[in-house]
Amino acid sequence: RPRVGVLALQGDVREHAHVLAALGAEVSLVRRPSELAQVDGLVLPGGESSVIDKLSRAFGMREPIRDAIDAGLPVYGTCAGLILLADRIVDGIEGQQTFGGLDVTVRRNAFGSQVDSFEVDLDIPVLGPPSVHAVFIRAPLVEATGDGVQRLATLADGRVVAVRAGSLLGTSFHPEVTGEHRFHRLFLDMVDARLS
Ligand code: GLN
Q: Cβ atoms within 10 A of the Cβ of 148, count?
């Protein structure tokens, strides 16, 4: 049974914990380095990336998370979590940092403000049918991907909204709020692959 942590500084922590538990993972909430050290994978939730960034520094979590990513810990980020995984961000607030690890450029709030949130059905080849009902809430967009970054999902106009590279997975949207479990399943497969 894989042990998966959800970074619990801010954001939709419960929703992720619920999906992971439903899929059979042993879930823990991670706020301290000692808690991070006990998990086989980590989810970075949706929320507000600049707040999670600040809190991660206040809690002494930034370096441990960066080190864990460097060491190959599987990490799945949704929305704010994807921003935190990106090596480069556009339109961050002043001084905003990311953990990095994912060789992408992400634009924060790429679709506008809260009122510009939207939902769309996406065909995602790596998951197969049926399509994913994707919810975008002040969502980021992946504007550029480096070599070795797989584009898992695009909007009808080709803009990239889900990526995977090595042990890192990121989506602009929130599978955890729609009962969509296949991204978390994919993530747990990545965790299992690293354990075996
Ligand atoms: N706009 C938020 C940020 O910059 C992300 C929104 C979300 O996670 N739903 O972090």
A: 9
Q: In this predicted model, what pLDDT tens digit does every residue of 70-85 receive, in sequence order?
A: 999 999 999 999 999 9
Q: What would the pLDDT profile of 32-69 be if each residue is shown by its tens digit?
A: 999 999 999 999 999 999 999 999 999 999 999 999 99
Ligand 1 mean position, distance from CA 128 (Å): 27
Q: Is 79 considered catalytic here?
A: yes
Beta bridge partners of 76: 43, 169
Per-residue model confidence (pLDDT) at position 114: 67
Given the residues 16, 79, 180, 184, the one annotated as active site:
79
Burial class (CB in 10 A: 0-12, 13-18, 19+), 179: exposed
The amino acid sitting at 162 is A
Catalytic residue among 15, 16, 174, 180: 174
- The CATH T-level fold of domain 3-195 is Rossmann fold (3.40.50)
The token duo for 92 is 């961050």
